[in-house]
Design brief:
Elements lengths: L2 H15 L4 H20 L1 H5 L2 H5 L4 E10 L5 E12 L5 E7 L5 H18 L5 E6 L8 H15 L8 E4 L6 H15 L19 H19 L8 E4 L4 H12 L3 E7 L2 E9 L1 H5 L8 H12 L2 E4 L10 E3 L9 H9 L4 E3 L8 H9 L3 E3 L1 H4 L2 H15 L5 H23 E2 L2 E2 L1 H19 L4
Parallel strand pairs: 3-4, 3-5, 6-7, 6-10, 10-11, 11-12
Antiparallel strand pairs: 1-2, 2-4, 7-8, 8-9, 13-14
Helix pairs in contact: 1-2, 2-5, 2-17, 5-17, 6-7, 8-9, 8-15, 8-16, 12-13, 15-16, 16-17
The structure holds NADPH dihydro-nicotinamide-adenine-dinucleotide phosphate and (2Z)-2-iminopentanedioic acid.
(2Z)-2-iminopentanedioic acid (2IT) binds next to strand 3 and helix 15.
């Protein structure tokens, strides 16, 4: 069978089995064109159905989460853990608490995580989980009871060598603390089963900052590849959460002009740039994203624009750091016509297929999240290693390790994605990850 026909049949198979899961279909189709050549070069991939194997999660667990609100009423939510692939190590990936969470979103995130984790070169499989619960609409006691109820089911599916969850949207140190406490009580063990823990009980230096910092370390390598520097570059950042703020603060500290941050309610535009200090002033602030951004404006000036993303603003570099599909085709066109030449994803799958096509058409360098945001999960593994050895590493050693990992991931993208003068980062990342995963699958025998 010709490669084209093989890929077509494969995609039809995936579509049929995942009919109502648009995000999952999007994530799978995004890699297929890139790895078609690999299937061509390795006839046994067709026989061993490598693509089919990787497109079906190892398992997806769904469970009820019932908990008591502050008025004594029973509330019911749905929880999930999608363990996508255990080929390379214990399942690893975050938990997201948001009303938009559903099986399609978690399957796409777990699929992306499998490829991302493969790129880190570390021993971790891919997973993702979460619930259709929003902690921002609950009191702190309610969040605690929800996390305990969630863990009452999840604990039987996880463990330091089985599956190690962490944070993601709306799951930060507070939620991880409550989840960890309940896990510890249930299994009567203190181990590294969750990462992103507070420093006081098993957490690691740099984990909080690692995704955003790692993104900027990766960006610096992208710029270095063409002899450029981040100094003075106008950087548009979306989001105002963990990833966005640490990316923005690191970029500002390296001399970039951070011209925006944003949230679900709108965008803060600061054409002259925000200082590192102003950005850091809201990092640990528990108020809503919009309230925090309006506070930055008191220091930096600038304009608050309701209900819009930052992609119409003039910039050299765009760092989407909020959520999936936040940057569409028209946004991509606006970015290109306003001078943007480079996009590096802090969020998972923030760019739609149309946006990616637009970047390719205009030769905009575009790093997929599976490469450029892998710093978070990489430092999670460093946290696991510290927990397993009962030793703590220093901040600067961990930051150096993060830098080295991001450099290696960048190099893999270059090695597998170089197209003449240009590097196709998406293609490079997909091929490098697929090579490791397909070899692991075949090497472990079919079963
Ligand atoms: P946070 O919860 O800390 O922050 C999320 C931010 O994104 C908030 O400012 C939020 O605004 C905004 N946001 C969320 N949903 C939407 C939406 N639908 N439209 C507009 N803005 C939105 O999450 P993180 O910073 O941890 O995660 C951000 C992204 O980075 C996600 O895609 C996540 O999967 C990815 N990521 C996270 C890693 C980590 O270590 N935390 C690691 C790798 C990737 P508002 O408060 O108004 O909703
Ligand atoms: O998307 C991600 O890589 C994360 N949310 C972090 C996962 C982790 O296990 O640290």
């Amino acid at each position: 069978m010709g490669t084209e026909q093989y890929i077509e049949e494969f995609l039809a198979w995936v579509r049929k089995r995942n009919e109502h899961q648009p995000e999952y279909l999007q994530a799978v189709s995004e890699i297929v064109a890139d790895i078609a050549g690999e299937v061509d070069d390795n006839p046994n991939f067709e026989r061993d159905n490598v693509l089919y194997y990787l497109a079906e999660p190892d398992r997806a667990i769904t469970f009820r989460v019932s908990w008591l609100d502050d008025n004594g009423n029973v509330r019911v939510n749905r929880g999930w853990r999608v363990q996508h692939s255990g080929l390379l190590g214990p399942y690893k990936g975050g938990l997201r608490f948001h009303t938009s969470v559903n099986l399609s979103v978690l399957k796409f995130l777990a699929f992306e995580q499998t490829f991302k984790n493969a790129l880190t070169g570390l021993s971790i499989g891919g997973a993702k989980g979460g619930a259709d619960f929003d902690p921002r609409n609950a009191s702190s006691r309610e969040v605690m009871r929800f996390c305990q109820a969630f863990m009452n089911e999840l604990y039987r599916h996880i463990g330091p060598n089985t599956d190690v969850p962490a944070g993601d949207i709306n799951v930060g140190k507070r939620e991880i603390g409550y989840l960890f406490g309940q896990y510890r009580r249930l299994v009567n063990q203190f181990n590294g089963t969750l990462t992103g823990k507070p420093l006081e009980f098993g957490g690691s230096h740099v984990r909080v900052e690692s995704t955003g910092y790692g993104l900027v370390y990766f960006l610096a390598h992208m710029l270095g590849d063409t002899g450029e520097d981040i100094l003075g570059k106008r950087v548009a950042v979306s989001g105002a959460g963990n990833v966005a703020l640490h990316a923005a603060a690191k970029a500002a500290s390296m001399g970039a002009r951070v011209v925006s941050l944003s949230c679900s309610k709108g965008t803060l535009s600061v054409p002259d740039g925000m200082s590192e200090k102003a950005i850091r002033s809201i990092v640990d602030d528990p108020r809503s994203s919009k309230e925090r951004l309006l506070d930055i404006r008191k220091i930096t000036g600038g304009e608050w624009i309701d209900d819009c993303t930052p992609w119409h603003l003039p910039c050299d570099i765009a760092l989407p750091c909020a959520t999936q599909n936040e940057l569409g085709e028209q946004d991509a066109r606006d970015l290109v016509s306003n001078g943007c030449r480079l996009v590096a994803e802090g969020a998972n799958m923030p760019c739609t297929e149309g946006a990616i096509r637009t970047f390719e058409k205009h030769q905009i360098r575009h790093a997929p999240g599976k490469a450029s945001n892998a710093g978070g999960v990489a430092v999670s593994v460093l946290e696991m290693a510290q927990n397993a050895s009962f030793k703590a590493e220093s901040y600067s050693d961990l930051d150096d390790e993060l830098k080295a990992i991001m450099k290696r991931i960048h190099q893999q993208c270059v090695d597998f994605g170089r197209e003449g003068e240009h590097v196709n980062y998406r293609r490079g990342a997909n091929i490098a990850a697929f090579r490791r995963l397909s070899r692991a699958m075949i090497g472990q025998g079919i079963g």
